[in-house]
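Annotated sample (chain length 232).
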Amino acid sequence: MSDDEIILSELSDDELVQQMHDDLYDGLREEIVEATQILLDRGWAPYEVLTEALVEGMRIVGEDFRDGILFVPEVLLSANAMKAGMNILRPLLVETGAPKLGKMVIGTVKGDIHDIGKNLVGMMMEGAGFDVVDLGINNPVENYLEAIEREEPDIVGMSALLTTTMPYMKVVIDTLKEKGIREDLIVLVGGAPLNEEFGKAVGADAYCRDAAVAVETAKEFMKRKHNSHVTA
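Output written by the structure step:
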């Protein structure tokens, strides 16, 4: 690693933001932490650092992931680097009451202990400016209900990697209907064995084939949600 070539603190703001996009792309955690701190020290608002440096950087990563240029291991590195920057910004964003795109509760369903895909979606959603509450793996319907009551999310995300655990998504969605809260939520489902037909069959709002699609879909639904509130 020839670090002496680029001294982050000597770059102009624009160059530094550009460098952060590159470093996120390469999954360079320490550089992202250092650059995040430099921008804050230069008087950047936490929300600006989030949107212009981290979110924009992750958008580029997301696009290349969607187009098959980047793969899961690389995207996980990028997401981890982004998370390190987020760790610095999160408390500051809370203090300043920065706008959020929305809140998502996400978890792998009961009987399923796979979490790479879910983690990736969570990180990418956070990188896009959503608040993410990760319930982890093997979640019975009660876990989702408790989290929905506690967190009041806009979006509920469910993941499954086994064909045997896929049907449990319907159990959760049917329970949301019974409780009369299904209409208030955007329900997104994902996982390798799923497809669009399955998403429709279980009553989800959308099936998301990967993390990049999940972010695009979530943004789209949030836009519609806001619009319907404005016109209501």
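Annotation: The mean pLDDT is 93.
Annotation: Residues 72-96 form the longest helix (25 residues).
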